[in-house]
Specification:
six-stranded mixed sheet; single chain; 31% helix; ten-stranded mixed sheet; 23 helices; globular; alpha+beta
């Protein structure tokens, strides 16, 4: 961005104006997004244009898009040679639950020469390292970067955080509450983005310019005072960018063929126009004429090129398919009372056929008796609280699509096996479904009840915490030959064209093209450098071979920075780089074998073995982590210890009253010492009862971690912990569970660190099967289904309504 000479285009579903694009110790926080943009536009004539989704609610659970627009456009100053402007795009279609569908593209384009495209929004919570640290370092994860949308929050902003907000224009806490870094894990983030150079970047530019101009027209329709300019040839010539774009269009860089594909509704195609002047960038008149003939014909149907690309890749797969996706929702037939052919927002069914195509390709290889495998990596559950209806409903659709629907992927594989006179139980020779997870240890300190500052001289708890690594990638790799990287999930709203607007890059490399045995000796495949290296890098990371244990944050470091003493050291680091010997002990094969032979039956067995082993290790230590609980929210029942500040501030026993419990007792001055002591004992008993009752309420859930399994709990407290249990102030007393025990930090951390291998965990596909949901899970407005029938009615895409 800092090398831009003419323009920067940014498209996001969500943007945080204060997100730190790089983590440094440099004074002034120079890498905040708005600071980077300010530095650019005040120093040179670069024009920054940002296209964001206009959420229906600009607060939790919205995207804070209006906040980003206000902040970024406030950067414009008289005398600055550059400018920044933001347009907000309303929901994308006019179908029955039109409010649900969004502008979802995520990319950056610089001067039409360099592009970044994939799954990552420039938003808080997305910055990650191969360590996937769940322990919050408040210097790296500032304010809203302490990200875990599934955890209930209570604490307010500390003095230090208030100073950051004031001095550096960080956004105030979302919902006015923050994660407590002393006892709550952050949610690590798994995503994939790629950098492109060459003519494909001009196609991303075309997409941006057309969508900007369409949204600009809508914005002007509603607000005649909107002064944003459209992005056309005349304006691009004015900012001296047109010739740069022509040069980029005609450049021949690199060794990869890259096709930019989109999901766009027919209504949007109509509004984008049928003869945009960006066609003039093509040097060949025949090419320009071809586009001019095609665009008018295409506008009457939804553009679903991402779905077409995915299907074509799956149909060509000879060894394996690797998918990382935030959602996996496809046609599944019937499950219980519901039929995927009847549901959808216009009751015309879930239309994307990805599960069917995977099943057909697996059936082909079952019949051919050749090794073949599909790896599906998904989140443990969608973003949000596990007791939230929309979260469960989307999870319901996912497990229906994968397993439980009578036409779900696993059921289809089983039918093919039966047809081949093989046992149904062999379905896992062709499909592996994975989650990812990590753990760490935290230290909780007492907080001031008004400014929420931590008192590092008053430790009140130590906990072993765990959280899913959130799979946000939208990635498909086939046979180490082709990769699709973009913004589209595996569901109707991303793929059928009339839901979310999406964009992706299909990459086919011509460098280091090699015929390789990927585990199927009789069916070698032509592999290519980009797809091959991408998968190998991802698996090297996911198996823990990129861990840098010096980079893990020690929770006690917060106290050390403040000059306070940590009474006893915390086991650290939680994870060390996976060793070949450890992998081989659990998997039975070496890393090179896993990387070289992804469809080999031995490698499939090894990966499944590691994932099942890791699941068993987590279940041996933790009581609440996802597994095949009968109900979806069962894990929440293990949270029994109330959050200290929530008790102190919300119960009838206020902080002030605890400091002087007898102050407001009538006639206290006339009582003798024995009477005062009796009243004080009664008040303390009532207060303890209040704590116990509070533990049954909703506010504490997901804040103080549950007890571990009995094997990893202890009643042997350190001397300083024993002393702290006698503190009458709950907000400053040692937190112990009902039986007087605490987490056995040493034992649990040692066990987890030695036993776990990387981050893959076997997905619990029977989790929550008996959950009773309110309403029909197939009808909820946040469910990822869409109509596939083009419709024309009222004007759509009106921005700034």
């Amino acid at each position: 961005m800092r090398k831009a000479n003419h323009f920067i285009w940014i498209a996001d579903w969500q943007m945080s104006h204060d997100v730190e694009l790089m983590r440094t110790t440099e004074a002034g926080r120079p890498n905040r997004l708005h600071q980077v943009i300010k530095d650019i536009i005040k120093s040179k004539a670069v024009h920054v244009r940002v296209l964001l989704y206009r959420s229906l609610k600009d607060t939790v659970p919205g995207t804070y898009d209006a906040q980003a627009k206000k902040k970024l456009e406030s950067l414009n100053k008289k005398g600055y040679p550059g400018t920044v402007s933001v347009l907000l795009q309303m929901p994308t279609t006019d179908q029955n639950d039109w409010v649900d569908y969004s502008h979802h593209q995520k990319f950056v384009v610089i001067d039409g020469k360099v592009g970044f495209i994939g799954g990552i929004d420039l938003a808080n919570g997305r910055w990650e390292t191969p360590n996937y640290d769940v322990v919050v370092d408040p210097e790296r994860f500032v304010i809203n970067e302490m990200y875990n949308p599934g955890a209930k929050k209570f604490r307010g902003t500390t003095t230090h955080e208030m100073k950051l907000i004031k001095d550096f224009d960080f956004a105030e806490p979302w919902g006015d509450v923050l994660l407590d870094e002393g006892c709550q894990p952050r949610m690590p983030w798994q995503d994939v983005h790629i950098k492109l150079e060459g003519p494909s970047v001009v196609d991303i530019h075309r997409n941006f310019a057309r969508r900007w101009n369409m949204t600009h027209e809508a914005a002007y329709w509603w607000n005649k005072n909107d002064a944003n300019e459209i992005i056309d040839k005349a304006w691009l010539k004015k900012i001296k960018a047109w010739d740069t774009l022509k040069e980029a269009q005609q450049s021949q860089m690199g060794s990869a063929q890259v096709q930019i594909v989109r999901s766009v509704s027919n209504n949007h195609l109509d509004e984008e126009g049928t003869n945009p002047d960006d066609l003039e960038l093509y040097a060949d008149q025949r090419e320009r004429n071809l586009w001019k003939r095609c665009l008018p014909q295409w506008k009457n149907q939804h553009q679903n090129n991402i779905l077409n690309a995915v299907i074509n890749c799956i149909r060509s797969a000879d060894n394996y398919v690797y998918i990382e996706t935030q959602f996996f929702i496809s046609g599944f037939g019937k499950w219980g009372e519901h039929d995927s052919t009847d549901i959808g927002n216009e009751d015309n069914g879930i239309r994307n056929q990805v599960a069917d195509e995977l099943a057909k390709r697996i059936a082909f290889h079952i019949k051919a008796k050749t090794p073949f495998h599909v790896y599906l990596v998904i989140p443990a559950h969608p973003e949000g609280a596990v007791d939230a209806g929309p979260v469960w409903k989307q999870q319901w659709l996912a497990i229906a699509s994968i397993k439980h629907g009578d036409h779900g992927l696993i059921k289809q594989i089983k039918k093919s096996l039966v047809a081949a006179r093989r046992p149904e139980s062999e379905w896992n020779q062709y499909l592996t479904v994975l989650n990812m997870r990590n753990f760490g240890a935290t230290i909780q300190y007492a907080r001031h009840y008004k400014n929420y500052d931590e008192d590092f001289n008053c430790e009140i708890g130590r906990f072993v915490v765990s959280e899913q690594i959130y799979i946000h990638s939208k990635l498909l790799i086939v046979d180490d030959a082709v990769a699709i990287v973009g913004s589209a999930n595996t569901n109707d709203r991303s793929l059928t064209g009339n839901g979310d607007t999406e964009i992706a890059a299909v990459v086919v490399d011509s460098e280091e093209v090699e015929l390789r045995d990927l585990g199927s000796p009789t069916m070698k495949v032509q592999t290519r450098k980009f797809a091959r290296d991408l998968r190998r890098q991802l698996w090297t990371k996911h198996f823990g071979f990129m861990i840098d244990d010096t980079e893990y944050f020690n929770s006690g470091r917060r106290a050390e920075r403040a000059g306070a003493r940590v009474p006893s050291p915390l086991p650290h680091p939680p994870r060390k780089k996976t060793s070949e010997s450890r992998l081989k002990k659990v998997a039975g094969v070496a890393l090179d074998t896993i990387l070289d032979k992804p469809c080999s039956p031995d490698v499939v067995k090894a990966i499944q073995g590691v994932a099942a082993h890791n699941r068993q290790i987590y279940e041996r230590v933790f009581t609440h982590t996802p597994r095949n609980f009968r109900t979806f929210d069962k894990g929440l029942s293990f949270y029994t210890l109330p959050y200290p500040l929530s008790v102190d501030s919300r119960s009838g026993y206020t902080i002030e009253r605890l400091h002087n419990p007898l102050a407001d007792v009538p006639g206290i001055n006339e009582m003798n010492a024995e009477q005062k002591a009796a009243i004080k004992r009664g008040q303390e008993a009532a207060y303890k009862l209040e704590i116990k009752n509070f533990a049954k309420r909703e506010e504490h859930v997901g804040i103080v971690p549950p007890s571990l399994t009995p094997e990893f709990m202890t009643k042997s407290l350190e001397p300083y912990q024993i002393a702290a249990t006698k503190n009458v102030e709950f907000g400053r007393r040692q937190q112990v569970y009902e039986d007087g025990s605490v987490h056995d930090i040493e034992k649990a951390m040692d066990f987890l660190g030695k036993e776990l291998v990387g981050f893959f965990v076997e997905a619990p596909l029977n989790w929550g099967m008996e959950t009773k949901v309110n309403g029909d899970p197939t009808k909820h407005t946040t469910v990822d289904v869409a109509s596939n029938t083009p419709r024309k009615s009222m004007p759509v895409n009106r921005a700034e309504v």
